[in-house]
Fold:
Amino acid sequence: MGQPLASPGFTDGTVAVRGALLDFVDDPFYKPEAEVVRYVADGLLLVRDGHIEATGPYQELNSRLGDRPLIDHTGSLITPGLIDTHIHYPQTGMMAAYGEQLLEWLNRYTFPTERKFADADYARQVAELFLDELLKNGTTTALVFAAVFPASVDAFFEAAEARHLRMISGKVMMDRNAPDYLCDTAQSSYDESKALIEKWHGRGRLLYAVTPRFAATSTEAQLKLAARLLDEFPSVYLHTHLSENVSEVAWIQELFPQYQGYLDVYDQTGLVRSRSLFAHGVQLTDAEFQRLSEAKAAISFCPTSNLFLGSGLFRLEQAKNPEHSVKVGLGTDVGAGTSFSLLQTTNEAYKVAQLRGQKLSAFKALFLATLGGARALCLDDKLGSFEPGKEADFVVLDPQATPLLALRNEGGIPATLEDLEDLLFSLVIMGGDRAVAATYIMGELAYPSSV
Amino acid sequence: MGQPLASPGFTDGTVAVRGALLDFVDDPFYKPEAEVVRYVADGLLLVRDGHIEATGPYQELNSRLGDRPLIDHTGSLITPGLIDTHIHYPQTGMMAAYGEQLLEWLNRYTFPTERKFADADYARQVAELFLDELLKNGTTTALVFAAVFPASVDAFFEAAEARHLRMISGKVMMDRNAPDYLCDTAQSSYDESKALIEKWHGRGRLLYAVTPRFAATSTEAQLKLAARLLDEFPSVYLHTHLSENVSEVAWIQELFPQYQGYLDVYDQTGLVRSRSLFAHGVQLTDAEFQRLSEAKAAISFCPTSNLFLGSGLFRLEQAKNPEHSVKVGLGTDVGAGTSFSLLQTTNEAYKVAQLRGQKLSAFKALFLATLGGARALCLDDKLGSFEPGKEADFVVLDPQATPLLALRNEGGIPATLEDLEDLLFSLVIMGGDRAVAATYIMGELAYPSSV
Structure:
């Protein structure tokens, strides 16, 4: 593998990177892969001021290098930065909590852990470790649950801002069915969220998500105030959980008997919109999929978490049904998910598909983790591919990163799309964080932190 | 973590190792964990000539050190070497083969790969890499499919013998429903297996397994000759596949209409015995579990493979039903399994249990990978725990091996069994090969290969 020549800050966001370039121009769930996969075996990515300027074959573009530094990643595969559409930063230290399914897991492990994030110093420390882990795993953007405390949001955004990351986060809203020490009120959650939006939303690359935990821990009054925030700030997001586990769905029905099911609670309170992202959706009915499609809302598919908590097998093919397609991204859902790696998460997505008699191709898997995630977050004008003008967040994957991968991929960078898909599948299944040789943010090396 | 002071060969198999010692004296599926878990937070393992001499608290045993070198692994957890009860060494280079379930996967990927093992040089090269991977993952004993070619067995045993490993392997027997280039005949498979048994079985630590691939690729004549080998050499093993996938079970019924199901084919041909190990058993009926129990035969539970190929969810609680208990070990089943790590395999076993509404505790998981595996292989007089007299194959696990594990386990080595179980669960879920700080074979450091 070529060694990076630049260190952080050196390139000033203006740089050229040589390697095998792979991205998507459209969705392989709806168009033939050969039409939507863009692959240049010996490619050059020209970056200026942190944005993609041009991309194409090295032989065509190398005359345009000028005096920008050339970083040679020949032998590696360069893809757009990976996008994690559902993750909880306060749960970084509680991964692998034993023996419970969703509701008991929340009470026994999650709530006591999140309490610690009232302490801003502790929150800052975990936020840094969390961002280190994201970058090590090639994840450059994430939609992130903070804790209920505004200070936990400040700590996260401060850490993300210092690293120039495009991150979306928000304060948890939760005014019932949780310990007192974690509860806000409908009004205080509105006020605090509003102040955080005014402080952080659109500051640099940061964006805000209104974040009720899930319908069971919010009163109807709180959900309606969340919707008011969406009305008042139309460019903020809605981020919550939906239909993860059978007992949860039944509980929601008990709590909200006046509504027609789980999604309808969010819908009638005004939360189902095009910038709404619902994590899980394992138990969704066909009609609910259809409603999400109509509303142009998105789902975060979190296979590792769904297996770890025994929640069930997400019906990806139903979400991707061309009759009523729903935007889908991938989520690690750390800490119910047990890995920060979106490659490892695609591995688990493949297994979920296999158990359901479906196939998830390597290209479709990578699409979900890149352009698919960007579309789910309405950020595909800025992220998710190498289209000129987009922000230059990208990942360098070494197909021979371990002795087993070196044996598996002894041919190195492939010439054909068929061989590329085979190589990519090996990274989906066996890659994890080890395949990530480098992560760049706005054209600057962000991982490894020093070379 | 304490640094090992010895290098390979230095200790001559006579050594003392200090650390937190964890093993089992009996099966936690049938007895309370507090009764069967043996834990010494500050322990000493005294090893002489490659065998356990004594184990207990450091303060009690340190007077018996004599002049043997003391290796300090304080801060780490030391367990018996992990035992992989089902793996294919010729498939090392074909992990992560895309998109098929069992039967198509065999035809499309496996058979062409195994053909390469007619070449003894190639076989030797892969055998070395395979053993490197086992040791890196803390696996000290495995029951291993070779290929159909006797040279592939020689290559494997030669490599294992040079490392003083206790390994069990055998030539694949396969006389139909496979490409000509991989087929033997009933008679040639008998003759070749017999010659290999005479050459290798009982040589040093090596043992032989008669290895028909599965009933679909053997004629009844071949299965009966396999049984004759078991009669002639009562201490060899039988190693094959059983009831992995729905289509496979249906095909066996077509191929052997005269028998009462899949297991009955093996039973009526004389292959269901106490030294018989059947991989998978995902589709077994209750009556088949009962028959395996009566015969004292064993199952290898291979969760990673079962998820990767979409075979299904093994009913562990049925195998462990105290009314008719079946011996169960864990198998990675590389290359349908996608990791050499038995810790990673316990992670997937936990998920299989969760999807079935069951819980697999960390202690039960580690039992399956140590003493449970030894019992499944009828090797519990030699392996699987720290009982004095047993062979000193053991693994050093670092509970703070990664930044995430360090955060998760910031308390270090625990004092109580409850805290130990919590720490162990983090290694089950997040450990993989990274948690393996060192692997010892007969009291000598085998991984890392140099310090």
